[in-house]
Give the backbone structure.
Amino acid sequence: MRKTPHLDAAYALSSPDDNRTLYADWAQSYDETFTEATGYAVPHHIAHEAAARGGLGPVLDVGAGTGAVASEIAARIEPIDALDLSPEMLEVARSKGLYRDLITADLTQTLEITDETYDTIVSAGTFTHGHVGPDALDELIRVARRGALFVLSVNAEHFGARGFTAKFASLADRITDDQILSRPIYGGAAPKGHADDTTNIVVFRKA
Ligand SMILES: C[S@@+](CC[C@H](N)C(=O)[O-])C[C@H]1O[C@@H](n2cnc3c(N)ncnc32)[C@H](O)[C@@H]1O
C-alpha cells in the first residue's frame, strides 16, 4: 500500500490559505499521483447519482480541482461550471475543455454568484478533513434554483466531527428528499492507512 504524502498533508490543513499552498504544489501531479494511482472512486459515485436522479444543467462542481467529476459527468449533463480555491488546479481543469466557466472562489466566504443560478450542484472530495465544513451549504443553497439537485461527498469521519448532522437538521425547511449513501473512497490501491475510508454521498433537493 502506497504512502501518499499530499493526502496526509491535505487532511492536516487548517485554513483556506493552507489549501491554496498545498494545491498549488500538487496541481500538476494530482491526477497521476492521486486520482489514477489510488483508483479514487468518489467522482464516479457523484456523477452516477447525479445522472441517475435526473440532474440537469447548469451544474456547479464545487471544489472541482482538476476536473475529475466533469470527466465523469460531461457526456450526460451540461453545461458545467467549476468552482475552486486553487487557480493552479483550475488551470489543469481548463486544459481538459470540460467546463463552461471556471470560478476561483473560497467556499468559506460569500460567493459572487447570482441567486438561483444552478439546477444541479455536485462536489467530490471537498467536504473533508482540513478542507470545507458544513457552513458552506448556506451559500450553495442560495445559488441553487428551486428543486435543484445536490449530490455532495462528505468524508464519513468529517461528517461526524464537523457537525453535518446538526447542520442538515437546521436546513430542514430549505431542503427536501434528503438521503445519505455510504460509498468506498478508493477502488484500487488505497493510500496507506486509508483502505477502508468511506464517504457519505449526501443527496437532497432545494425546497
Ligand atoms: C481533494 S481535492 C478534490 C478535487 C476534485 N473534486 C476531485 O474529486 O478530484 C479538494 C479540492 O477542494 C478545493 N478547496 C479546498 N478548500 C476550498 C475552499 N475553501 N473553497 C473552494 N475550494 C476549496 C481544493 O483547492 C481542491 O481542489
